[in-house]
Each structure stands twice: as structure tokens, then as C-alpha cells.
Write a structure and sequence with these properties.
By secondary structure, this protein is of the alpha/beta class. Helices cover about 40% and strands about 20% of the residues. The strands form two sheets. A seven-stranded parallel β-sheet has the order 8-7-6-11-9-12-10, with helices on both faces. It has a five-stranded mixed β-sheet with strand order 1-4-3-5-2.
Length: about 270
Amino acid sequence: MAHERITSAQNPLVKRLQLLLERKGREESGSYLIEGAHLVEEALNSGAAVTTILYDSERELNAACRQALTNISPDVHVVAASEAVLAKLSETKSPQGIVAVVKKNQQNWEEWTEQLLQAKRDLLLLFLDELQDPGNLGTILRTAEAAGVDGVVLGRGSVDLYNGKVVRATMGAIFRLPVFTQDLTVAADQWRQKGGRMLCSTLREDSRSYDSVDYSGKVAIVIGNEGRGVSDEMITQADELVHIPIYGQAESLNAAVAAGLLVYEARRKKDRSH
């Protein structure tokens, strides 16, 4: 596959890729780093904009990843590298011997919503209000894709979408699910102007139980920050406040668990109404 092999961490390409381990480097380059055979395979098979791949030529990759690499575009720069070099580009304790560079999603939120609203009358979106935990965000994106969510809006002030922990936790969903980082109150206002409804997850007493809510039509569900919940600004834009009953002593549910329950309840009711 590769005609060159990098053995020094001082190599210019390796130094450039190391910058992608930090948020600033990702923002300046418009690209992010993924690692592991499964994620690389998912990226290639989903049509993500992979630009560079480094792999350990002395290590056996799984069959699915090898198959994905055999069908790779000639535009992708594939380079063999030593185990020591790949360790410099890994954030995990047990590097899997392959990393890749992927360009960030370049879709425009307003253009995307216009196209989606023209194509579909029944929509389900997730709005995430300053979510801080990378594991939570990755799990939510993985669950959202599984539940058929059309897209996700990540509020500014949230954990970086392209943080390595987030990307790994998505298990490939990040390559297929449209996700936009926006000012959430502005995005919510635009959504409502286009006829969409906003349902905010909250523990307030004036909210309705999530299983008694109408999820038909164009609906966006808002999940709040792990510590303070949904912001007052988003609450004021809500068409309805919903809660998930808690029967034990816990004060609240984990954000990823709450998101999962809500999107699957919405999906169940949407499917039942068709």
C-alpha cells in the first residue's frame, strides 16, 4: 500500500499530525485525527474525507480494515510508520497501529436545514446545551444515529466535537450523522421560525412526562449541561418542557441516558403514527 516508511517522530508529517491532538491544531487545520482499525474502516466505508493514513506495516490489521484499505482512493496519502511513531499520535493506552486524518464536516447549518425541510415533513433533531463530558457527547451521537435522528446541533461552549474521546465514543457515527456547532439560541430561533417545535428536557414541576408528549412533525429535543441542565435562554424558547420520572434517590439522569430515552421514545411514537 505504501512506498515510504516513517521511523522518526521528528518527521515533518508526524509533527503536523501531532498538532491535531490539540483543539487549536484541529481548528486551524480544519481536520482531526482518528485512531484504530474500526474507526478508520468506518471512515473509509462511510465516504468521510480521509486525507492521510499512517499504519504499522509490521502489525496485522483486521480483515475488514484491510479490505477497506484495498479500495482506497488514490487521493489518500498512505504511509507506513513504525510502532514508536504511531504511539506519538495515539491518545490510548494500547495503540492499534493505524491512524488517519479526516477533514471536518463543512456543511452549513442553515443550508442543511432548508434542504432537509424541503425533503422531509417528519424530523427529529437533538440540541445539546453546553455538554461538557466527551464520553457523554460521543455516546449521544452514537445513540442518535442508531435512533434515526436527522441531525445534532452542539451549542457553543460544549466539549470539542472532534476531541479524540468524543470521536472514539461515537464508534463511527460522527462520519454519518450531521452535527453542527452553533449558537444554540440562534439555531433554536431559526428552527422555530421554520415551523419546528422545541422540547426541553428538564426536572421542573411544570413539565410533562416524556412518554405523554407528542413527538410528531418537526421536533428538536434539547438536552442540557451535565451540571445545570438546560439554560434559561433555551427554556424560554421551548414549546414544551418534558421530564423523565426518577423513582429512586438520584437527583438526575446521566445526559447520555436521558438523550437515549427521549430520542427512542420520539422514534417509537413517530413510527407508530405512520
